[in-house]
Amino acid sequence: MNCDSLQVYRYFDIGTAKLPESERRGIPHHLIDIIDPDALFTAGEYARVARETVREISDRGRLPVVAGGTGFYLRALLDGLFTGPTRDQPLRDRLAGRESKRPGSLHRLLSRLDPPSARAIHPNDVPKVTRALEVCLLTRQPVSQLYRQGRDALVGYRTLKLGLLPDRDTLYQRLDERCARMFANGLVEEVRRILAMGFAPSLKPFESHGYKQALQLVQGELGPRDAIFYAQRGTRQYAKRQITWFRREPGLVWLRGFGDSPEIQQEALALVSAFHENSRNQALL
C-alpha cells in the first residue's frame, strides 16, 4: 500500500517513480493514482482512506505492507492526527501574501507562537508552517499543545517498521543518477501533457522536486542543465530531511543498505518472519 504523498496523484508518473503495472507481478498495489492533481488530499484524508484499505486487505486474509517515504502520512496512519480546525482559506491567503512579500516570515512567526512546532518543521516547508499557524491562530493554542491532548491511533494491529539507511555518498550518487534519468525518460514531456490537460501550474504536485524544475524549464525560467542540477540538489536535501524525520520514529529498525541488495532483502525477510512468529506466540498466550 502506497505511503507516498505524490503517487496518489494521477498522471504524475515519471517524477514519482511509480512502479509500472508490468512490473507489479500481479500483486495488488493500493492508493496509487486515486485522485486528480487538482484535488485536495490531506494527511487526515490519507489516514482515513489508508485505514479502510488496511482493513480490506486484512479481511481478505492478506498482510498489509505499507511502502513509501512520506513520514507524516505514516504517522497519520499509525498514530492518528489531533482534531484541528478545518481549513480557513481567507486566513491562508493572508498568510501566503505575507510569505510572498517576506520569505521566511511565517516560520519566524511560528517560532514566536509555538517554538516546539517551529523546531519540528523545516523553514522551507511552507505548507506545514502555514497549517501550524492556521491552527494556532484559529484555536488560540499552540499546535504542540494540541498534539499532547491525544490522537486517534490505529488499533488492532502490531506494526513492524523497517527503514533503509544506505551509505550517504552512495545514496546521493544514486539520487543524482535517478533524477537525470527521469529528465532523460520524458519528465518534461510529462509536465507538458499534464498542463495540456488543463491542470494549473500552481497545483501542489508541481511543487515537488523534479516537477518544479521541469515546470520551470517548460516556462523558460531554467535551461535543461540548470533544471537537472536544481532538481538533484533539492532531492538530496529532501532525502536528508527524510532521514532526520525517521530517526525520530519510535521502534523503527534500520537496514543499512539499499532495498535492491539481496543481503538487505534477506535481512528484512528474517525480521518479518521473526516478528510474525513472535506475534503468533503472543496471540496464543
Account of the 3D structure:
This protein has 285 residues and is mostly helical. 54% of the residues lie in helices and 3% in strands. It is built from twelve helices and two strands; from the N terminus they run αααααααβααααβα. It has helices at residues 43-59, 71-79, 89-101, 105-113, 115-120, 126-139, 143-147, 168-184, 187-196, 211-218, 224-247, 262-284, and strands spanning 161-164, 252-255. The longest helix has 24 residues, at 224-247. It is globular, with a radius of gyration of 20 Å.
Q: What coarse outline follows from CA principal-axis ratios?
A: globular
Radius of gyration, Cα only, in angstroms?
A: 20 Å
- Biggest sheet, in brief? 2 strands, parallel
Query: Structural class of the secondary elements?
Result: mainly alpha
Q: What's the β-strand tally?
A: 2
Major beta sheet, strand line-up: 1-2
> What is the number of helices?
12
Oligomer: single chain
Return the average pLDDT rounded to an integer. Answer: 93
What's the helix-strand series? HHHHHHHEHHHHEH
Ranges where pLDDT stays below 50 over 5 or more residues in a row are none
Report how far the terminal alpha carbons are from each other.
30 Å
Beta-strand residue fraction? under 5%
Summarize the amount of helix as a percent range: 40-55%
In short:
By secondary structure, the chain is mainly alpha-helical. It is built from 12 helices and 2 strands. The chain is globular and about 60 Å long.
